[in-house]
């Protein structure tokens, strides 16, 4: 994993920010870090955001990714600084085409976990080694992590990044994503 490039990136409503791009030497995927404002002293607020084209770009109501992305930037901006890693782990690591295959199975009544299994995938194919490597490259070894997902905390800790605090990151539900969010709690161990 190497840093490819870094430049200033002015973003609406955020303090002065930079974007740094990293390339995974094995998969070739390019992951991005948005480094917002200034931080120092206490560990920075960090959000690991897994790519979700449908939620992040199109405003899909089937998940909570779009609102989570916006809220994370709002919270980091209000705190004066922090880092958002935009990880190219679409569909919890199965890719866009397969995620939409899973959606088609969900249209027929399967939940998110069973749809993944029916397609021959694990419940969640993500790995947080890349995220930990990106943080290390940025000189960050302790974080306050915005998440409800205990696997993200364990994944970072397992790679030597200390999570000093979990900051819950819940969004209001809508009729289309209520089951998806309930499934995250019931079957994937997501925290309140
Ligand atoms: N395979 C699959 N992936 C999905 C589905 N819905 C959303 N995703 C992907 O799930 C990822 C977001 O992960 P979540 O588990 O919802 O939340 P999280 O980010 O791990 O956890 P938090 O940090 O608490 O938000 C994105 O990559 C989405 O594309 C689905 O039904 N099936
Ligand atoms: Zn999503």
UniProtKB/TrEMBL annotation:
Residues in GTP cyclohydrolase II domain copies: 5-167
A Gene Ontology BP annotation from the UniProt entry: riboflavin biosynthetic process
Residues the record lists as binding Zn(2+): 52, 63, 65
Ranges annotated as spanning the membrane: none
Cofactor(s) for this UniProt protein: Zn(2+)
Binding-site residues for GTP, renumbered to this chain: 47-51, 68, 90-92, 112, 147, 152
Cofactor binding, per record: Binds 1 zinc ion per subunit.
Known EC number: 3.5.4.25
Pfam families in UniProt: GTP_cyclohydro2
SUPFAM superfamilies referenced in this protein's UniProt entry, alphabetically: RibA-like (SSF142695)
Function: Catalyzes the conversion of GTP to 2,5-diamino-6-ribosylamino-4(3H)-pyrimidinone 5'-phosphate (DARP), formate and pyrophosphate.
Family designation: Belongs to the GTP cyclohydrolase II family. In the N-terminal section; belongs to the DHBP synthase family.
Xref: HAMAP family: RibA (MF_00179)
Record's protein name: GTP cyclohydrolase-2
Species whose genome carries this gene: Sphingomicrobium sediminis
